[in-house]
Write a structure and sequence with these properties.
single chain, mainly beta, seven-stranded mixed beta sheet, 54% strand
Length: 116
């Protein structure tokens, strides 16, 4: 069974940092891209970042470029999202995602709240 579990969220002041983790299991983690998405109340889900499998190329949404960094540790089946210079508009529930054998899998979200 494919499972993704995000953790590391919390309450932080504007300008602060958090590191999110997403632990994966149930599939060959090394071979699949993993993405981070977020959703704030009343807003659509937004793609934040993604890291590929082989060359570990990365993608960032315009709103987080230069502030967030995604990485992966294949030995631990875990990806990370280092979030720096956080802003109140980064407040959302953050989810990790993978597309495996024709289906999207979503982990349970972790809440990030940035106070001004």
């Amino acid at each position: 069974e494919v499972q993704l579990q995000a953790s590391g969220g919390g309450l932080v002041q504007a300008g602060g940092s958090l590191r999110l983790s997403c632990a994966a299991s149930g599939f060959s983690f090394d071979d699949y891209a993993i993405g981070w998405f977020r959703q704030a109340p009343g807003k659509e889900r937004e793609g934040v970042s993604c890291i590929s499998a082989g060359d570990r190329s990365t993608y960032y949404g315009d709103s987080v470029k230069g502030r967030f960094t995604v990485s992966r540790d294949n030995a631990k089946n875990t990806i990370y999202l280092q979030m720096n210079s956080l802003k109140p508009e980064d407040t959302a529930s953050y989810f990790c995602n993978t597309y495996y054998r024709g289906r999207n899998y979503w982990g349970q979200g972790t809440q990030v709240t940035v106070s001004s």
